[in-house]
Structure formats: structure tokens, C-alpha cells
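User: I've been trying to design a sequence by hand for this structure and keep getting stuck. Would you show me what you'd pick, starting by listing the structure so we're on the same page?

Assistant: Good idea, let's start from the same input. This is the structure you sent:
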């Protein structure tokens, strides 16, 4: 089925804004790229303004990103390390799929801080909470960590760094394939620790607790 006129306009705006930025993109250029007669005003039958189409494009890409995430493998598994490696590969693929959305944010975040905050909350903060929930429920017997949110923050940072390095330099760091990267990171996450994980909250509570006098007069 051929895309609707509205969808064509969104596609055209998305591509143009990634190329020349929001300020450099004109309504006439959007019309021309979407197959409408340039300068005819056909654009305004579907959107009120250039900002309106930009926000609509962002919302569409955000919904696509959330749909990609809903397709991640879920549920208990027999081989947690292999399952986690597959999920990490899904995360890398997800980052590639949402690249247009990230490109828009990277280019226009200063002009649209409200969108940046909203998308960051949904894709980053909420994503970490969801993945932490996966670890603590589906893989709880194999991934026991005192601070799963901090653990997932480390994991997301590692995935992001690997993804950006591949995009920027055109090849994986040290030629480590995504499969090797995911398998190694999964092994690190599921490997048993040699001792109990430090409880940061406990240390903070101890540091802030009032000191009592030593009955023997010693520290």
C-alpha cells in the first residue's frame, strides 16, 4: 500500500531536518520532497506549521522506538547467558533502528528541550527501569546485583559506546563483532562475584549516622 500524503510529508521532513537542520528546512522543500507541488500550500492541509510537522515526526519515531522495544525477548529462560547475549544484540539493533530519532535530538535538542527531556525519559530512564526489571525477574537466579539500575546504566553506556564507535569509525572497535561483544558483556553480567556486592546505601547510612561516645575513650 502506498504511504499516505501525511506519511510522505513526515518522511520528507525527517530526512531534510537530519540533513540541513530545522532552521534550514523549508515548507517548500518538504512539499517538493514529498511529491507535492512546491509552493502550492498543500503542506498546510495536513500540518499547521514546520514545527508541527517536526513534533509529529518525533512522536511517530518515538512510537516506533517503543514498538521495537516491546519486541525484545522476555520471560524466563534455560540458558540465561545466551538469552542475555541475544537481548544485548537486540539492543544494538534497536539503537540502529532509532538512529533517525537520535540524529534529530542530537541536532535540535537545544531548540526543543521539552522534546529532548520527554524522549530521554522514555527511551533512557524508562528503558533502564524495564531492563532492570527483566534482570531482577527473568534472570534473578543468575544475575544478583545490589543495584540493578546502576548495573543497567553501565550496560547501556557500554552498548551506546560500542554503537557510536561503529557508526563514527565505520567498523567495530578492535574488529570485535557485535556477537562477540554481546557474548562477552553477557558473561560479565552473569558471572558470579567473588564476594558480596557493596551496598552503597548502607555505606551512606553509616556515614550519616550520629557518632556515639566511646565508653573507653578511644576511637
Amino acid at each position: 500500500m502506498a504511504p499516505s500524503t501525511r506519511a510522505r510529508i513526515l518522511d520528507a521532513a525527517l530526512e531534510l531536518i537530519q540533513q540541513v537542520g530545522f532552521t534550514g528546512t523549508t515548507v517548500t522543500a518538504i512539499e517538493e520532497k514529498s511529491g507535492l507541488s512546491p509552493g502550492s500550500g498543500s503542506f498546510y492541509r495536513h500540518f499547521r506549521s514546520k514545527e508541527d510537522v517536526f513534533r509529529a515526526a518525533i512522536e511517530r519515531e518515538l512510537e516506533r522506538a517503543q514498538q521495537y522495544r516491546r519486541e525484545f525477548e522476555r520471560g524466563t529462560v534455560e540458558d540465561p547467558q545466551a538469552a542475555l547475549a541475544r537481548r544485548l544484540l537486540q539492543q544494538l539493533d534497536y539503537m540502529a533502528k532509532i538512529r533517525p530519532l537520535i540524529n534529530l535530538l542530537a541536532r535540535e535538542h537545544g531548540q526543543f528541550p521539552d522534546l529532548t527531556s520527554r524522549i530521554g525519559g522514555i527511551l533512557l530512564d524508562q528503558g533502564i527501569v524495564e531492563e532492570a526489571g527483566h534482570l531482577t525477574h527473568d534472570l534473578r537466579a543468575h544475575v544478583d546485583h545490589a543495584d540493578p539500575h546502576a548495573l543497567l546504566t553501565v550496560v547501556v553506556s557500554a552498548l551506546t559506546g560500542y554503537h557510536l564507535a561503529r557508526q563514527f569509525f565505520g567498523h567495530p572497535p578492535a574488529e570485535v563483532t557485535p556477537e562477540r561483544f554481546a557474548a562477552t558483556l553477557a558473561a560479565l553480567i552473569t558471572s558470579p562475584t567473588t564476594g558480596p556486592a557493596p551496598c552503597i546505601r548502607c555505606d551512606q547510612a553509616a556515614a550519616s549516622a550520629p557518632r556515639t561516645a566511646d565508653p573507653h575513650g578511644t576511637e
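That's my pick for every position. To get oriented when you compare it with your attempt: Residues 27 and 49 are 8 Å apart (CA to CA). Residues 194-198, 212-219 have pLDDT under 50 and may be disordered.
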